[in-house]
Each structure stands twice: as C-alpha cells, then as structure tokens.
Design a protein that fits this description.
263 residues, alpha/beta, Rossmann fold, 5-stranded parallel sheet, 5-stranded mixed sheet, 18% strand
C-alpha cells in the first residue's frame, strides 16, 4: 500500500508496521498516546516522555546523529523522522534501511494532519481521531479565552552563545500568534542569530520568553538579558509547550492560559 508523508515523499508498506523507530521526541510521545508503545523499538536519547520509555527501548543516538548499525539491528518496519529535527542525510540513510516517513510542521493544521497520517499508516485511526477531537476542543476554548486580550510584543529565545530566537516560518512563531503575541523577529526566517545589545533596536518587546529547550535557560540568564532590555518582562517558559507538536499540545493550551494569567 502506498502512503505519502508531509514533504510529499511516497513510500510503500506491505503491512501495518509493528516495529517502529522514532527519531523525534514529540512524535515518540504521540506514538505512546496513540496506544503504540509496545511497537516502539528504537528512540533517541532526547525522547524523554513518557519518563520510563528510555529504560525499555533501544537508544539509537540523537536527533542529529544516529547509529545506523543499531537501527539495522532493530529491523524496523518504519522509521519516523522530521524535516527540521533530522538532517537530509539522516533521512537518506534511514530510507536505505526501512520505509521512512518525514513530518513537516509549521501550524496546528500540520500537527493534526500528522496525527491523521499516523492513524492511517499505523492502523490506529480511532485513537488519532480522538486526539484530534480533543485538540480541536482545546483550541476552541483557548481562542475564546484569548479573544479580548491585548496584543503584546515578544521575543522568544531558544539558544545562547550564539543568541538565537524563533523567527518566521516556525511552529513556535505560529503558537505565539495564537497567543496574541507579536514576534518582533517575525521579519527574519527560522532561527536567526542576534546581537543581544540590539534586542531593543527596532522594537522594544513587552515580553522576552526564555525557553527551557533546546538551550536550558535558567534564572541567571534573566539578569544577563535584562541588562539590554530593562523595560521588558523576562520569563522562563516550558519549551515543550511551544515546540512539541504532537499530543503534548493537549496540555499546552491550559499552560498558555496560566501563562497569560501570570503576565
């Protein structure tokens, strides 16, 4: 049977995959919430949810650096990748081992499409439909919550040395928009490097959000950034809620409500 992934690659499966390797943490969590934990045979060292998973599954490396020998030994039926998380070289290496699905997520609709595709490919349509329905309900509730809020200008930091922020055409930027937060770096693509001393050069952000991942920002970084942005409120935020696009989204909107109530 032929399937198409989110970058329009076509691949074939002769049966429902029962040996799955996931190279993306948020997608690994989604698989578990789709009821597929027993079929996962390999994950990355960054697949931290659910917490017990790394004890029971084979670690095949990171998201950017995989052990192809370990992957081959696991004899997977399918390998699940992501365009942003994994490199083109990784995808090409995986294709030589087993059918490979690549996700490409910029919006909530993309997220829902991925869940739907997994439901079809992995024969769990009912579970996928249920997650999508719950997610739609969360989105409707949040849009009602946020509709009268005042727009705030924001900068969302993801890395230090060099300083990097989320720009346009990212899932983070999409979620900032839904939160009625205007990204002052949405005129730049993807994840631009910036000079910290220029943070307020063009626009003075009302809020500066420091993500818990991929760089683990801590309280000491607030003071460092405040030197150059004394007028901004600087907050540590849970990066998983802003960047994990699988079933983690079912928790994200309650988190966003609490975040808004705190600012």
């Amino acid at each position: 049977m032929q399937f198409k992934d989110q970058i329009n690659r076509v691949f074939e499966l002769n049966k429902t995959p029962k040996r799955i390797i996931s190279l993306v943490p948020s997608q690994t969590e989604l698989l578990v919430d789709l009821g597929l934990e027993e079929y996962i045979v390999g994950i990355t060292k960054f697949c931290v949810h659910p917490i017990n998973l790394k004890k029971n599954k084979t670690i095949i490396g990171g998201t950017k650096n995989i052990r192809t020998d370990k992957i081959k030994e696991l004899n997977p039926d399918i390998i699940l990748c992501n365009k942003e998380e994994n490199t083109k070289e990784i995808v090409e290496a995986c294709e030589k081992i087993a059918p490979t699905h690549v996700s490409d997520i910029s919006t909530l609709d993309d997220s829902k499409e991925l869940i739907k595709q997994y439901g079809e490919i992995l024969s769990c349509k009912a579970q996928a439909k249920n997650i999508i329905k719950k997610l739609d309900d969360e989105i409707v509730s949040f849009k009602e919550f946020i509709k009268n809020s005042e727009e705030k200008k924001v900068a969302y930091f993801i890395w230090k040395n060099p300083w990097m922020v989320a720009g346009n055409n990212t899932f983070i930027n999409h979620l900032l928009k839904i939160n009625n937060l205007k990204n002052i770096f949405s005129n730049k693509e993807r994840y631009p490097e910036i000079e910290l001393q220029n943070i307020t050069k063009n626009e003075n952000p009302d809020l500066i959000l420091l993500s818990s991942e991929p760089f683990p920002f801590k309280k000491e970084h607030i003071n460092e950034i405040a030197t150059y942005a004394s007028q901004s409120k600087i907050i540590l935020v849970d990066g998983e809620m802003f960047s994990w696009y699988g079933s983690r989204l079912l928790r994200a909107f309650d988190y966003f409500k609490k975040l808004h109530n705190s600012i």
